[in-house]
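User: Modeling request: complex.
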Amino acid sequence: MSEKVLMKGNEAIGEAAVQAGCQCYFGYPITPQNELTAYMSKRMLEEGRVFIQSESEIAAINMCFGAAAVGVRTMTSSSGPGISLKQEGISYIAGAELPVFYANVMRGGPGLGNIAPSQADYFQCTRGGGHGDYRVIVYAPSDVQEQYDYTMLSFDIADKYRMPVMLATDGILGQMMEPLVLHKYKDPGDLPSKESWRLGDPATQEPIWITSVRLGDGELEEHNFKLQKKYEEIAEKEVRFEETALNDADIVIVAYGTSARVAKSVMEMALADGIKVGLLRPITLWPFPEKRIREIAEKVDNILTVEMSLGQMWEDVRLAACGACRVHLHGRTAGGVPEETAIVDQIKTILSSKGDEIIRNF
Amino acid sequence: MVSKIRCAGFGGQGIVLMGKLLAQAGMMQEKHTTFFPQYGAAMRGGTANCSVVVSDDAIASPMVEEPDVILIMNGPSLDKFESTVRAGGWIFYNTSLIDSEVKRGDVKVFKVAANDVAKEAGSTRSANMVMLGAFAEKVGAVSVEALLGSLDVMLKGKGDKIMSVNREAMKRGAALAK
Amino acid sequence: MERIFTMPEAMKPEQTLYCPGCGHGIAHRLVAELVDEFGIRDRTIGIAPVGCSVFADKYWNFDVISAAHGRAPAVATGMKRGRPESFVICYQGDGDLAAIGTAETIHAANRGEHFVTVFVNNAIYGMTGGQMAPTTLVGQKSMTCQLGRDPAIMGYPIRVCELLKDLPGVAFMARGSVDSPKNVLKTKKYLKKAYSNVLEGKGYSFVEIVSPCPTNWGMTPVKALEWLRENMLEHYELGVFRDCDAEA
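Assistant: Request completed. Predicted assembly structure:
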């Protein structure tokens, strides 16, 4: 049964989590994700599950650490400043190999910044975020439906690889309402059982120790190489992206989330002027679709990165392109949303420029 | 075909509900639609506003900088948003609460005595419905029928009295624009 | 020959690596003896905090999780709420519980979370080498108050029981010591009450254990016990601070 409703992005994340069997939600208020915490305060209790408005974001992520350790599905959510506070816990969760889902409804930074939509946490999202040698899988939805779908998938992927998985969205996608098909959660059926490692289960024979502490000689290095192997498998299997009109493109835009929505109307506007614009939309920010971008860079002369941050993803695109073509930047920040006309103008400037000049909008 | 609409007024005039009803109606007509509220650090004071996009194609950004239509429920909102409407667009405004005239000459204007008409329909609180009815009849980005249908969804459980007053207000608003 | 004293089943047959005269060994054992006495080893989860007792997993023969510094009450909350049939022991030192984790401690107590907190107070940071703790006494010297704790600059030693006892979520709160066999037995009595409260669903139960740290106090084990009695017990009064049953 699939019902179509008009729903807010933040609430769609919450409902997807409920459907996916999230047993424990822990959160602390912060704009622009408040509707999610509010939604869970009602829905989780209706379902007889756990909701706690914690004393801090730090407490919330550590409650997730505890709930994950006893083998139940758990999540938290926040925006930039709160996600920064959670990094301690996320690092421990990664080290202890526990499945936890969290959403970052990004706002303007640094510092308290503002509450306007932004993609400025890209570096933090894609580099683990906390201390130590670890990775986090990051999904970047671009509409309300994807926020629902990728929340469900995140729980599965977190369980599959026993690691933190993040939904990186923004104030626009969190606050907006859009039609949404509320399809039911479908268990993939092949997820590993938690019975052998979860705490407090009388059925396990030997005492179980869940930890991120590894003080013995070489113990941590060995563990981190094991994690690395897992990350390499993920980079191989879990990369997701969407590509549009790449054949014969005069220029290719790389953009995710809200920026990718804007890029789609740029494509139409530019086509009216006879310019063919292709789009590569990363859906996973880590693992990043670097192979695909490299292939594109071999075929086109110009790539334009469009982002609501000042060149953060641009670095990854340049790394992937590895000098095979020019990589330009259209970045806005702190609530600025890329505008179609400005991007089309920049594309025209790029296409008429020569040599190895890199064109930025700022 | 894309319609970018901004609703604005003061808190308590049902501005957010106007936006949600428009988006719901758009969805019921199988169109792409987005609703985006103004969200700010201050909980009170100033104007309340939201934006809605209704389109036959996928919608890029739900944020509306240059609306095709603004539905204005009070004076400060007219001052704030008059200049934002695209040339050739529409300004609908509530003459029950606004004495001033639209200064621009490059837009179409439709005046709605929303509070007065709503009072005749049963409650001044339904002034927002009068405005929506007039807009739907005049511009047609969503139909009056779809708006009436969206009322059933959005006001589910609010009681027959409230529902019938709102329906009546919306119909009277539509009648103004015929 | 009759065996009259054995390791609890809830302790692994390991020799602890704690310093001579340290109180953690006794506190660990009390925790484990009660786990056996209540017959709850298969559903008990202990928290190994940051500090000397980060190695508790090597000694306790039940499930253990290592929490981040100060976050044990939040981790305990997540475990207990996620698996209500589990029995959670939140074991923490003074820096962990009363400095970096003060917020988590107060709010877990205030929510009346259903786990046991064992608070080992030795008035110093042990593992990092003897820095000032929130419970370091006025005038007491440490690596980071080498001239002695001066309250005008460093504030006063926190009495945690006195601070928390009036929160409505607290079912039981007591302070014991491990300086003498008599006080060890009394501390065990307090812990037993805390365990039974939690098992009966009565709410947050908290036992502070005043404990010696000869190494970082720079004393022999015997001298440390004397110092504890003469100085710590002066400031940290032993006894029951809250007992929901007595009130009822």
